[in-house]
């Protein structure tokens, strides 16, 4: 309302100027009123915006917090529907839309009110002629209403594609190592680009609609003024457009212009906000885990004697699917150790999940009394120190802590790590080996001192000696948990005789329960399984025809022989566990034992401080946004399009300035002698004014649509470059960069490029045109005004220089502090089962809230400083408030330039890491499979010690070679070097007379095959996970599934090869995922196959079948196996023994075993194979 006071005072002031007899005090009074009104308006407007921003900030905080809380309680079926990518978008994009909306929502009612008041006051000036302008606005309403409705539909569809894209990006980042090993980057990049292409089509349409809306609203004030002035001067020759009517009306038209020009942005923000509210609402309606599914009543029935009990339980992961577990009856007595065994996919891990309450209970009941600890099959590790991961928020009690570290075989690890237990572990434990992660996870559970322990095959990822140590010191009858209730899922038969009870799972049902001796005496499936395993491994050389009694005896003998002395406690761990530790610490045994001078020690201490820190902090850049960042954006925008946009913009600017000058000249035309209009001059003025408006409209059309095309082109190019660079980044980048930080670039920052920059650019161009036009017109009509403009310009320059520096930096900090929110969320979603099991949901929620508050601490000063500088400029402009129109336009240009420059900072943030050169490619290679290393050395990252040092070896075609050595000797480093995951720092690797350093990465990796230790699957179909390039026939894929012993399982799926795989392969067991990885290898059939402990998660019977498959199907290939189970490589042609990154032994197993002084002989003796 205060806005309309200025035109009224201006009218009185013009009347005072025209009345030479008026007293001078009136002029001073009117000037003072103009000044005070302008000051008061500035204060009110800025206070309004501050309140709106605070409201928006609270909305974003509430939305993010409630989404995080909901994500911890999602049921398994809901997790399939609400993917990680979608939830990340809800927290990053949709919550931000809610934050932006409050500042504009009040314009829904204030805009009609402003328009009505402007029309009323214009009626006072021009009479009924104003109805012509009103008619123009009424005609524009349905047009823009239709545009808004269409934009809303496009926004909904666009967000769906955005969810899919971020979900796929998240999966790619989680499985980036596998993608690189298989050379699948191109296939997944095409998937992302396909989704992005669909997103771009909708974005382009949306930008065109926005350009059309901008055309109508930007031209609306001009068309309204043209229509009103035309009707006014044409309706009567006595209607003369004098200075009072012209300038007061122009002031009112300028007031009218603001709501009309801002309305497209208002509709855009409100549509986006409405869409986001709908998306968040739908997510919050997803089904949650039933909190009453598992009762925790210590007095229920015999709960005191049975801490875990299931009565007639039937469970499923999704109510629409067939039950996974059926008719489960289980009672676990207090303090007992219960083993759960069964084949791959029999339901072992599902049984643990049922006890945790992660599955839907269709029938029966589950009761669990006391506190509970959970060790998942795939260890869940957070980004933090080793100690933080183990303590898990509990208070440190050093004696207990030290005992647990020793019992979990972590003492040697901590000695090797640069910072001991204060060394940082990367996200998902990326700088630890699989066994180390599992032991940290186990140590965490033991330190929590719970009543019930659910252990999902924690021993599968560790060496046999380490496993025995852990069983005896932690899990077994003499371990730290001997008085606790323990349920242990295992695929090993070694420890079964020490179990109090054994539960045998088959096809989702409990087929047998009993003690070890009882199950053997029954001579059922359990006894047959163990007998088959022992006979197939030839433990005593007897025939397959022994009767069942003899079979039982063999079992007893075998188990007695497996009880070895604790040699590993004194000898084994002295040299143990360096492999992945070198990735973070870079410390070798030589470095630990070599004497150092005082200077070297000081230097070593400084290096150690750096090595303790793995994850690189995301630092805020300082200084101006570099010119090349602007230029790189406009390069992506397109040179021709940018030139075209500027040309149309200059046309619009020139005609807008010209029309204002022309109107000023028109208002100064004297009337004819009889006091009426000069008809000929009137027609000339009106015609030229209309013509300038037409040219101005053409300029707006050209500017808006070329800007729309350019912004879409820039969005497409920037996302394409970012994706390319991320996929080509070396693994060291992912080791040191939290995935949440990268996801933030693809989610929030790309959304800024897609949506915010085009809107900001459009607003800035319009307001800057207004500034230039107004300054030029006023200076043209009142040259003395230049005396005010020059000092005002100097003042404005210094204010904006100070403000933009702080605003830019706060914007950078805001973006940086967003990344930890998403990193924490992703870690929480991955470990949701563990968080619930340990009853740590409240703590994780509090930490999420803390990170959110910390981010808002950067956002709050950003917008308050924005409003502060706006009020400062508004106050100084009040000193020249005689030129009222300048207040809006200069204030508008500040509001436009500041967000534009701050938003361009986002583009600076999405600079991707350095590329890796893809090199040249070959058409046919390799043909034989001969591998030669010549004085080869490598390290994980610059600044770390060598993990392979001057290695030279030749592996002949079709040789089967086992790579052995203590953990940390360099086994995995050697295989990673074959795939150039680790680049050479000296020497060469030659495969079939070709130096792999001269090959393209895709060419190299696509011609080698690896079965990794960690089975990684991607959401999509089963066929996609086996053949993403669609180069194999269905028959070939079915054959590979048969050879991988998955044919029966896939046949049971309703859609076969088209069966949906959940995100991360969540609807398959870990063993089934490992078999899918084997099927991939069988499909590729390359001349070189690398196995990295590929069957750790598979039961012994299936493991033997797979080993047989590998021996027959890859008999013409060179096979390189990293072996923890020495029995799997005893029939190999050669053994390579590595120690401290060097080859210390290379010969056949037979020759090495004949030499009692060889290291291989000692290892085989430790494993009781000799």
From TrEMBL:
GO terms for cellular component: lytic vacuole; vacuolar membrane. It is found in: Vacuole membrane. Residues 1-22 form the signal peptide. Its main location: membrane. Residues 308-532, 931-1165 form the ABC transporter domain. The chain crosses the membrane at residues 28-50, 104-123, 129-148, 208-235, 255-275, 630-650, 775-799, 869-890. It is a multi-pass membrane protein. GO terms for molecular function: ABC-type transporter activity; ATP binding; ATP hydrolysis activity. It holds the Pfam family ABC_membrane. Residues 1-272, 686-860 form the ABC transmembrane type-1 domain. Keywords: ATP-binding, Membrane, Nucleotide-binding, Repeat, Signal, Transmembrane, Transmembrane helix, Transport, Vacuole. Belongs to the ABC transporter superfamily. ABCC family. Conjugate transporter (TC 3.A.1.208) subfamily. This is Multidrug resistance-associated protein 1. It comes from Capitella teleta (Polychaete worm).
């Amino acid at each position: 309302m205060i806005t309309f006071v200025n035109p009224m005072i201006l009218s009185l002031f013009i009347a005072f100027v025209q009345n030479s007899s008026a007293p001078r005090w009136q002029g001073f009074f009117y000037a003072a009123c103009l000044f005070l009104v302008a000051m008061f308006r500035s204060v009110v407007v800025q206070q309004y915006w501050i309140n709106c921003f605070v409201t928006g900030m609270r909305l974003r905080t509430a939305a993010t917090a409630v989404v995080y809380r909901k994500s911890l309680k999602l049921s398994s079926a809901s997790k399939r529907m609400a993917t990680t990518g979608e939830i990340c978008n809800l927290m990053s994009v949709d919550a931000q839309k809610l934050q932006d909306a409050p500042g504009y929502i009040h314009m829904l009612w204030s805009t009609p009110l402003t328009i009505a008041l402007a029309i009323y006051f214009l009626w006072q000036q021009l009479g009924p002629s104003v109805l012509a302008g009103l008619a123009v606005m009424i005609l524009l309403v349905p047009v823009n209403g239709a545009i808004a409705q269409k934009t809303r539909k496009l926004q909904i569809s666009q967000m769906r594609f955005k969810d899919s894209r971020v979900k796929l990006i998240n999966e790619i980042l989680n499985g980036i190592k596998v993608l690189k090993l298989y050379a699948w980057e191109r296939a997944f990049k095409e998937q992302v680009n396909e989704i992005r292409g669909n997103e771009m089509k909708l974005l382009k349409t949306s930008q065109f609609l926005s350009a059309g809306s901008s055309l109508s609203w930007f031209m609306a004030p001009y068309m309204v003024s043209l229509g009103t002035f035309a009707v006014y001067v044409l309706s009567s020759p006595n209607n003369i457009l004098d200075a009072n009517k012209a300038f007061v009306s122009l002031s009112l038209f300028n007031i009218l212009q603001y709501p009309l020009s801002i309305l497209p942005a208002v509709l855009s923000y409100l549509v986006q906000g409405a869409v986001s509210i709908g998306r968040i609402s739908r997510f919050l309606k997803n089904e949650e885990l039933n909190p009453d599914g598992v009762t925790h009543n210590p007095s229920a029935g015999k709960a005191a004697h049975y801490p875990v009990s299931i009565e007639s339980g039937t469970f499923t992961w999704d109510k629409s699917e067939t039950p996974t577990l059926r008719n489960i009856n289980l009672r676990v007595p207090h303090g007992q150790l219960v083993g759960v065994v069964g084949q791959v996919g029999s339901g072992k891990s599902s049984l643990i999940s049922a006890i945790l309450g992660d599955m839907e209970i269709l029938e029966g009941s589950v009761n669990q009394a006391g506190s509970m600890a959970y060790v998942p099959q795939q260890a869940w590790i957070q980004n933090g120190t080793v100690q933080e991961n183990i303590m898990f928020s509990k208070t440190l009690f050093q004696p207990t802590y030290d005992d647990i570290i020793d019992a979990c075989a972590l003492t040697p690890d901590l000695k090797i790590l640069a910072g001991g237990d204060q060394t940082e572990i990367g996200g998902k434990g990326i700088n630890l080996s699989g066994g180390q992660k599992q032991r940290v996870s186990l140590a965490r559970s033991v330190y929590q001192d719970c009543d019930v322990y659910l252990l999902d095959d924690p021993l599968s990822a560790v060496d046999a000696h380490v496993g025995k140590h852990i069983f005896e010191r932690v899990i077994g009858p003499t371990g730290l948990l001997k008085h606790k209730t323990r349920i242990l899922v295992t695929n090993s038969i070694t420890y079964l005789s020490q179990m109090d009870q054994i539960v045998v799972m088959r096809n989702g049902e409990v087929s047998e329960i009993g003690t070890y001796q009882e199950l053997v005496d029954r001579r059922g499936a359990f006894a047959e399984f163990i007998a088959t395993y022992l006979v197939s491994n030839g433990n005593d050389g007897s025939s397959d025809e022994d009767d069942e009694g003899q079979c039982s005896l063999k079992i007893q003998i075998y188990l007695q022989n497996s009880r070895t002395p604790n040699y590993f406690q004194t000898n084994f761990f002295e040299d143990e566990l360096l492999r992945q530790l070198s990735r973070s610490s870079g410390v070798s045994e030589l470095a630990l034992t070599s004497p150092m001078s005082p200077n070297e020690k000081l230097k070593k201490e400084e290096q150690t401080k750096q090595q303790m820190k793995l994850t690189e902090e995301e630092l805020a850049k300082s200084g101006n946004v570099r010119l090349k960042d602007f230029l790189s954006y406009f390069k992506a925008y397109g040179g021709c399009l940018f030139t075209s946009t500027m040309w149309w913009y200059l046309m619009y600017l020139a005609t807008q300035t010209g029309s204002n000058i022309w109107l000023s000249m028109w208002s100064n035309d004297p009337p004819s002698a009889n006091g009426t209009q000069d008809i000929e001059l009137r027609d000339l003025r009106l015609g030229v004014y209309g013509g300038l408006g037409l040219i101005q409209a053409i300029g707006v059309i050209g500017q808006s649509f070329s800007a729309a095309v350019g912004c879409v082109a820039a969005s497409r190019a920037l996302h394409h470059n970012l994706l390319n660079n991320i996929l080509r980044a070396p693994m060291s980048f992912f080791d040191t960069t939290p995935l949440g930080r990268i996801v933030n670039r693809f989610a929030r920052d790309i959304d800024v490029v897609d949506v915010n920059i085009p809107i900001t650019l459009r607003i800035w161009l319009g307001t800057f045109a207004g500034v230039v036009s107004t300054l030029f017109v006023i200076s043209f009509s009142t040259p003395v005004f230049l005396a005010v403009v020059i000092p005002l310009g100097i003042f404005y320059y210094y204010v904006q220089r100070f403000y933009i520096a702080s605003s830019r930096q706060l914007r950078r900090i805001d973006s940086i502090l967003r990344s930890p929110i998403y990193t924490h969320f992703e870690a929480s979603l991955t470990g949701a089962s563990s968080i619930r099991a340990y009853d740590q949901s409240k703590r994780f929620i509090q930490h999420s809230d803390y990170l959110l508050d910390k981010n808002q601490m950067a956002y709050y000063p950003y917008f308050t400083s924005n409003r502060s500088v706006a009020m400062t400029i508004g106050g100084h402009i009040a000193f020249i408030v005689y030129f009222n129109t300048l207040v809006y336009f200069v204030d508008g240009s500040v509001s436009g330039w500041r967000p534009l420059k701050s938003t361009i900072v986002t583009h600076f943030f999405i600079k991707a890491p350095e590329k890796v050169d893809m090199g040249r490619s070959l058409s046919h290679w390799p043909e034989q499979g001969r591998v030669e290393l010549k004085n080869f050395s490598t390290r994980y990252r610059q600044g770390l010690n060598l993990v392979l040092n001057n290695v030279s070896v030749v592996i002949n075609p079709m040789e089967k070679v086992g790579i052995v050595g203590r953990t940390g000797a360099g086994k995995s480093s050697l295989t990673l070097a074959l795939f150039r995951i680790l680049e050479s720092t000296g020497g060469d690797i030659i495969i079939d007379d070709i130096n792999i350093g001269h090959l393209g990465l895709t060419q190299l990796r696509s011609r080698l095959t690896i079965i990794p230790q960690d089975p990684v699957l991607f959401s999509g179909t089963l066929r996609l996970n086996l053949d993403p390039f669609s180069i194999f026939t269905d028959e070939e894929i079915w054959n590979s599934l048969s050879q991988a012993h998955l044919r029966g399982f896939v046949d049971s799926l309703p859609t076969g090869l088209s069966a949906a795989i959940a995100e991360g392969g969540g609807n398959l067991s870990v063993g089934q995922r490992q078999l899918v990885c084997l099927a991939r290898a069988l499909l590729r059939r390359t001349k070189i196959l690398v196995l990295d402990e590929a069957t750790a998660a598979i039961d012994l019977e299936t493991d033997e079948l797979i080993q047989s498959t590998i021996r027959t199907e890859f008999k013409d290939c060179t096979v390189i196996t990293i072996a923890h189970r020495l029995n799997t490589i005893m029939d190999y042609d050669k053994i390579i023994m590595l120690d401290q990154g060097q080859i210390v032994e290379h010969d056949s197993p037979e020759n090495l075993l004949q030499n009692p002084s060889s290291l291989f002989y000692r290892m085989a003796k430790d494993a009781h194979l000799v």
